[in-house]
């Protein structure tokens, strides 16, 4: 079995003749938190959507557990891209019940994931009345329903207050301790620095750095160097 749960080989993608990903070759080790960093518009969300089956690359291949990615790979993948897809007129439990019916999963899993994200006592409160942090946690609960081995979170701290960010940070580290590989995309260096074991830095569609988080290494300096280098190359 491959030591990498997810790999890409020369992934490229264009929209209206503009190339937004340029030959991305990325390796995500199993059981880690992988932080995907980059400025806004760098191509992070496009890449995350490919990992979740929402887009396909124009060139290159994606591999899951050492084999070419197929739709079956989604059975082991949980996804939260941008805003959680919630029914605001339904309770937390009702939202998850809709998902279990669609996925053919047992209802008992609902209470398990609500406990994981600390939303078990929300009762009849509708999702539309939830704080942003609660909505994000409910979105993560939905992503956990199928017992994923890979969890994909795209900009999960957007709109959260400091307390919500701290809660989410603790959740993400907890998933890694349980053996779930987590890919977190963000443009906020400090957030990734506090949860990630490995980082990849994308700028102007190019993967400019990939490696482990090393104690004492200045991530901000590294990030700035990669962004400047790639922008100079693009110019």
TrEMBL record:
Q: Which UniProt keywords apply?
A: ATP-binding, Nucleotide-binding, Transport
One Pfam family in the UniProt entry: ABC_tran
- Gene3D superfamilies for this protein: P-loop containing nucleotide triphosphate hydrolases (3.40.50.300)
Where does the ABC transporter domain lie? Answer: 6-229
Give GO MF terms, alphabetically: ATP binding; ATP hydrolysis activity
InterPro entries given for it?
A: AAA+_ATPase, ABC_Gallidermin_ATP-bd, ABC_transporter-like_ATP-bd, P-loop_NTPase
Family that this chain belongs to:
Belongs to the ABC transporter superfamily.
The identity of this protein, by name, is: ABC-2 type transport system ATP-binding protein
Report the source organism.
Faecalicatena orotica
């Amino acid at each position: 079995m491959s030591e990498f749960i997810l790999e890409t080989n020369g992934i490229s993608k264009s929209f209206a003749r503009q190339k937004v990903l340029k030959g991305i070759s990325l390796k995500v080790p199993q059981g880690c938190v992988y932080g995907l960093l980059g400025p806004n518009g760098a191509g992070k969300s496009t890449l995350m959507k490919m990992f979740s089956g929402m887009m396909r690359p124009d060139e290159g291949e994606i591999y899951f557990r050492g084999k070419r990615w197929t739709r079956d790979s989604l059975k082991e993948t949980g996804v939260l891209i941008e805003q959680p897809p919630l029914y605001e007129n339904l309770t937390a439990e009702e939202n998850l019940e809709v998902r279990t019916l669609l996925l053919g999963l047992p209802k008992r899993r609902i209470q398990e994931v609500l406990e994981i994200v600390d939303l078990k006592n929300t009762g009849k409160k509708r999702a539309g009345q939830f704080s942003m942090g609660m909505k994000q946690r409910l979105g993560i609960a939905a992503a956990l329903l199928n017992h994923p081995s890979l969890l994909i979170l795209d900009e999960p701290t957007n709109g959260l207050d400091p307390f919500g960010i701290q809660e989410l940070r603790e959740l993400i580290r907890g998933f890694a301790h349980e053996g779930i590989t987590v890919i977190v995309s963000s443009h906020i260096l400090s957030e990734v620095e506090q949860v990630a074991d490995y980082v990849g830095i994308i700028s102007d569609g190019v993967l400019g750095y990939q490696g482990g988080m090393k104690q004492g290494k200045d991530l901000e300096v590294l990030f700035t160097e990669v962004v400047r280098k790639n922008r100079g190359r693009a110019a």
